[in-house]
Design goal:
Layout (H helix, E strand, L loop, with lengths): L4 H18 L2 E7 L2 E6 L15 E4 L5 E2 L8 E13 L2 E11 L5 E11 L2 E4 L4 E4 L2 E6 L9 E8 L11 E10 L4 E9 L16 H15 L1
Antiparallel strand pairs: 1-2, 2-3, 3-4, 5-6, 6-7, 7-8, 7-9, 10-11, 11-12, 12-13
Length: 220
């Protein structure tokens, strides 16, 4: 059967819209027996920025974790996965990206747990740039709960965006009194590391791991 050109165009637009809407929500994750749903916000009419923050919700209660306000909003590429903080403790690692379609972006990191029926972030406000990275390390000799470690570039005098940089290393550890993570240590690397102009991805933390752990041991 031959489809008229205008009708064919209409069908393509409708199908594309339906596919786009289907991509807005992902509900395949179950955490601590509860179904979790991630929702994107879509983009502004020009397609450049998120029109709002992404969110992650408990389906049973409708309570949600929504990233803090930002310009642009943390609305792109929301993802969540279950991580093991200790043998008896899990959390949801939730990430979302803020970008205006330029070369720079920020990624929000949140470690979520269900407390009093709501999703609560166990981390302080943790954001890394497009030239940053993060790791979750289990180091029982230092902490019974996993460490969250981030590295992000510091733009020095005479440097360009994608030249070699020194990196700020931050380590977050679980505090038993508040049952949340806090900043335990930070320092600036003594050497410069390649940025995305020279490397496919940032790989600072593994190279700095011995120093990171030594600094934490000295604090004990």
């Amino acid at each position: 059967m031959r489809v008229m050109p205008k009708l064919a165009t209409l069908i393509v637009v409708v199908v594309a819209s339906l596919l786009s809407a289907q991509k807005m929500t992902c509900s395949a994750l179950v955490f601590k027996g509860q179904k979790v749903e991630i929702t994107e916000s879509g983009t502004t009419p020009d397609g450049v920025e998120p029109k709002g923050p992404a969110k992650i919700c408990l389906v049973s209660s409708g309570t949600c974790f929504i990233p803090p306000n930002s310009e642009p909003q943390f609305g792109f590429s929301p993802e969540a996965k279950i991580v093991q903080l200790s043998p008896k403790q899990q959390a949801l690692l939730f990430t979302a990206v803020a970008s205006a379609s330029g070369s720079g972006s920020l990624t929000l990191l949140a470690l979520l747990d269900i407390r009093n029926g709501s999703l609560e972030n166990l981390l302080p406000d943790v954001r890394i740039s497009e030239q940053g990275e993060y790791k979750i390390w289990n180091e029982p000799s230092i902490s019974r709960t996993a460490l969250v470690v981030t590295a992000d570039y510091l733009w020095g005098d005479g440097e360009t965006h994608f030249s070699r940089h020194r990196f700020k290393i931050r380590t977050y550890a679980f505090g038993t009194s508040a049952s949340r993570y806090d900043l335990r240590d930070e320092y600036l690397t003594s050497k410069k590391y390649p940025s995305l102009d020279e490397a496919d991805k940032i790989t600072v933390l593994e190279q700095e791991k011995a120093e990171i752990l030594a600094r934490l041991r000295r604090q004990k």
